[in-house]
Request: fold
Amino acid sequence: MRVLILLIAAASALWSQDVERIVARYTRALGDATKLERLRSLSLVGKMSSADGSWKRSFRAWFAGDKVRTELTLQPGIVATTWTDGTSGWSIQPWTQSLVPQPINKAALWRLGAMAHVWRNDLLDLQRRKTLEYIGTEELDDSDCDKLRSRHSDGSVWTYYLDPDLGLLVKVTAEAEIGGEAVQWSATFGNYQRIEGVMLPTVLETSSGTILVEQYGLDEPLDATLFAPPAK
Reply:
């Protein structure tokens, strides 16, 4: 029994070293990682296209902590909008023939928060790094990506896939139980470019569609009304 305990302890120490090695490689690959570690706000402008490429529309998003706003232009002057003030969320869905903001359910609110968490993920959080687990590798696009797992206090489980050569994130998955419903969210990242000294993906594939980023804004002042609840 004592030998078994020693073996488990040794294996745990080695896997802990793997986490430290992978995180260190990730932060080096980012360039100026402190810009993301201290990130207060992020915005992006680009296009969103469907998975089959049948449509492409202008897309914008703003992030400030847990606050998020996304806008997808369907036609000039007709914009599908979803946003949260960090606690509650709303959406405007023009295809319903109404421009009146409607509350979004808890699952949609959680997915919106998951999108925000990508920019301040667990590999960048000095406290959460301590709880990361190395869970081996998985092949993605012919590369054996390293996998790190993080468990949050809300019960959600996050898995990070990192390229073994570049050291950058190539995929993130998150799953949780919201109101008794199993909810998932995932995104893959590609075509990294150096933006203001830090490497950021310009292609993000999500379940909602593929986002092609044309411009990022880091720590720019954001108008508080972007995230404000609808006027009554």
